[in-house]
Amino acid sequence: MNPFSYARPDDVPAAIRMAGETAGTKYLGGGTNLVDLMRESIEAPDALVDVTGLSKAITRNPDGGLTIGAGVSNSAVALDATVRREFPMLARAILAGASGQIRNMATVGGNVLQRTRCLYFYDEAARCNKRQPGAGCDAIDGFNRIHAILGASPSCVATHPSDMCVALAALDADVHLEGPDGARTVKLTDLIRLPGGHPDVETELKPQELITAIGVPPLGFGRRSTYRKVRDRASYAFALVSVAAALDVGPDGRVRDVRLALGGVAHKPWRATTAEATLRGQPATAAAFAAAADAELVGAVPLRDNGFKIELSRRVIVAVLDELAGAGQ
Ligand code: SF4
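Above: the input record for the complex with iron/sulfur cluster. Below: its predicted structure, written as tokens.
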């Protein structure tokens, strides 16, 4: 591990200022991913600015939405009474994401910025465009069972590992940012990039910009939402496929509105807008859910080892929507 300096600012402006003082500075949240990457010499920051003491409130907004400070622990979000009641998919996603110890350490901001668990990314003997731009990608012709089926590129087929972000994508969450040029807000699904030709550039963050909070807009049917994660073992594993969904069914049995996002299938949490559009106005039946899933997955491209993810995604989408439809009858 390289030597690095450490600072713990008192407020956000001080954090942004400190991040500009040393080239190669990284903001430090709970460190559950960054410190591992530093131990493996995948990340080698010259300075760490510890932001775990900042932005630690969960605020209920007058419109019924939430503002969740970036420094709030994953556990605190999952245990928050309003989150559990109004947005159960978010609590369930976080609880599915990691052990209690990691949830206690990990922050919301750090969860958003955690890096892929592609095995080749962690193996310094392997070619990886994300770790070393232009080197190539050993995953494309290698062992790629856990890799992407949607939105991948010839440069990178990695997936985003977060469960929390899948629920936030379905909830249309905003990310509040502050940097040297002031504050701005972007959609979570716009902040995290697809790999394209530059998988090393994972977000739209500008230099020194800090995530200060996540905004969750109100969702009238948020209470009828859930998250399901399919993985190789019951705990301590990342998603092969996960689904966050909320469903609003009218008295006529037709879908009034739906939110759907997939995890484990792309370089970013995948908001399934095609499936949503296909389903609105349709009867809330397994056949309609399957047709919506098929519409979303028509563009899926399997690699040698992960073709099963297409059918698995389809089945989990149908199962989750079926469950939500049944819960409201
Ligand atoms: Fe690196 Fe992406 Fe290829 Fe994995 S899939 S080896 S992260 S370039």
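Notes for the reader.
The longest strand covers residues 241-249.
Residues 128 and 134 are 8 Å apart (CA to CA).
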